[in-house]
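Marked as duplicate of an earlier ticket. Keeping the data here for the record.
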Amino acid sequence: MPPYLTSYVEGAKEFPKPILDSIKKENGIPIIEECWKNLFGLYYLSDVVGKAWQQLYTPNSKINIELHKYWEILANALKDMPEVIAYELMNEPYVGDIYSNPKTLWFGYSEKNLLTPLYDSLTQTIRKIDSRHVIMFGHMP
């Protein structure tokens, strides 16, 4: 997880806790070779990753605001490009903070209550700039 996103998440356990005890770091950043020693999917279960996803889904949180700014910039840059087929809003979204809200693990809960409202909001952001290109929506695995 990028350090700038971690700085937006308050009150989270240090990455990659509670699933893994620790990962060796250099200058506060996990060493990639150390990370490769574990299954990638385990990192989704770390507290800070879940809380970061939850922030992404929370309207007007720092991460949510940054994601909307990203799509504004991208839509402005690509709106007149015929080579662009579509915008894919998110690849492989995660359910959110499973520790603070275990309901996120219920089938369909996060997709209905977190992801769909985010997609609606991002679509409005893009449509203010670009009404031509297709917007693609990925679902939760």
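See parent ticket for discussion. The radius of gyration is 17 Å.
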